[in-house]
Amino acid sequence: MTVLILTCEEDVTADMVVVHLNASGVPVVRVDPADLTGGVALSGEYVHGRFRGHLSAGGRLVSIGGLRSVWVRRPGAPAGRAVQPSAWLTEEAAQALYGMLRGSDARWMNHPDAARRARHKPWQLRLAQRCGLPVPATLITTFPRAAREFAERYPELVVKPVSGAHPQDPPRAVPTSRVAPDTDFSAVAYGPTLLQRRIGKRADIRLTVVGERMLAARKATAADADPDEVDVRFAAPGSPWEPTDVPSNIAPGVRAYLREAELAYGAFDFVEDADGTWWFLECNQSGQFGFVEVETGQPIARTIAEWLARPVPDEQARVNERNASIR
Amino acid sequence: MQPFALNYARPAVELEAVIPYVYDAGLQLNVLLDGRVAACDFAVLREVGTTTSTAGSKTHFDD
């Protein structure tokens, strides 16, 4: 049984997992859907009540029925590198590839439907609330007056993109940024704006969860840190990421979150305040983990590899000669 | 007429480091010029920054 990894060639973070799969002798096929009709080919046949499908890439051929798991990492747009790419061809290729894969019994990290839903930050915030995780007061609005009133209630504010995406025309980055209390909010009318109470933080937390395993890392905020640098991704390097424990009042909420979101993997961002409370910021359903492992030595890649390498239920039954379920 | 959040945008910073590895389709891994697997060399990964949480922001939503 094979592990299928959907990602681009330059994804060296995926390599960290491939290394462990290779070491344990688990077959791997790595495919970038962007190469469909070029270096990647597929075929599926629905005949006599049965389905037989195959994928080939880099000289490897794998049966879709022979997949134990699918890891959706950083896949390119299907057929994005075709000789004559088009939006129509991308949709055709996406329907063919992901449609066939959805019919397999393989386990997903993460299933495309769950992944798509989990990208919505407003949905994340509500789910985190329902799971009992502390969520900073947040407003998403196109009403300038609502923004002004929110700023009066919470004078210490930050703004961040609702989607987390960065504009590309021209390429710009939109870090989480402090908003001055006397700011002119009239431009809120021109696009949904996410304002959030700024948490005075003493550390950033990155909690990577793989299946049931939680691997938390903490990056202390320097005492002399620039208070305007609230986004750790864009701040000066400062303290290193270090392993830390997950507070007992947070772990159940995180488990509930992933269960409700139907995610096998999630990279949570929290900030830790002066009282030690972890405030939920977001959960990246395909968040980067390489930088954490590089700094902390936490075995994230190995844990992902172990999750991907687990037998599918039918295989478990064969292995154990009974309907055992191993989690 | 610019959305409020874009008042806080800054020019995107491209990675300055030269990527010292290339993809080997046979291995399904990126390899350094001396043939070693790049993912096993944490010093290289740290230096080039391709595993950091901003690396995927240009084309992907998830950091």
UniProtKB/TrEMBL annotation, chain A:
Phylogenetic classification of the source organism: Bacteria, Bacillati, Actinomycetota, Actinomycetes, Kitasatosporales
A GO-annotated cellular component: cytoplasm
An example Gene Ontology biological process: SOS response
InterPro entries linked to this entry: GRASP_SAV_5884
PANTHER family documented for this protein: BETA-CITRYLGLUTAMATE SYNTHASE B-RELATED, RIBOSOMAL PROTEIN S6 MODIFICATION PROTEIN
This protein's name: RimK domain-containing protein ATP-grasp
Recorded superkingdom: Bacteria
GO molecular function: ribosomal S6-glutamic acid ligase activity
Species: Streptomyces viridochromogenes (strain DSM 40736 / JCM 4977 / BCRC 1201 / Tue 494)
Automatic annotation (TrEMBL), chain B:
InterPro entries, per the entry: GRASP_targ, Rbsml_synth_pep_Strp
Protein name: ATP-grasp-modified RiPP
UniProt cross-references to Pfam families, sorted A to Z: Strep_pep
NCBIfam families: GRASP_targ
